[in-house]
Protein: Methyltransferase
Organism: Mariprofundus ferrooxydans PV-1
Amino acid sequence: MRITAGELRGRGLSVPDLPGLRPTPAKVRQALFNILADVDGMRVLDLFAGSGVMALESLSRGAASVISIEQQRRATRNMELICAEWRLSDAWQIYTNDVERALTQLSGQHFDLIFADPPYKQGFCEQLPQWLDQKKIGCDRLVIEESARVEPQWPAGWLCEQSRRYGDTTLHFLSRSEV
């Protein structure tokens, strides 16, 4: 797997062979960042980080900082190795934790962008906006990756601005709705 654009473009990263780990394909990553247009200087939260490729793409394209949360220790260990090898420790924080618990520790913080790639078809995509509200975590934009076979019902207070399908993957772009 390779970084598709920016300062780190072309760098390859290893992905551990773990059950349920499915890194976002290059085509989907490129489409996502084309839609976002500019992440320069942004503070990014990467939930269900898996391989860390979304954090790396964000940093490569100029994000100021990224916090990655992943529950599987082998996955975070792999991200930590990449972080050290590529000398990104000033900008990339990596935590091994359950996402809901990790959000409690981030309570009250604000992020320009939150990206989440939870396990498909398990309801996490509908729960995540509620967790953000409960933990008082602000964001300008929330992007959730989910199976194209799922039609999420977003909680009150959240607006899905657009959804884009790429094969079996759909990216949902959400923001808080005006009250």
Notes: Helices lie at 26-36, 53-60, 73-85, 99-105, 124-134.
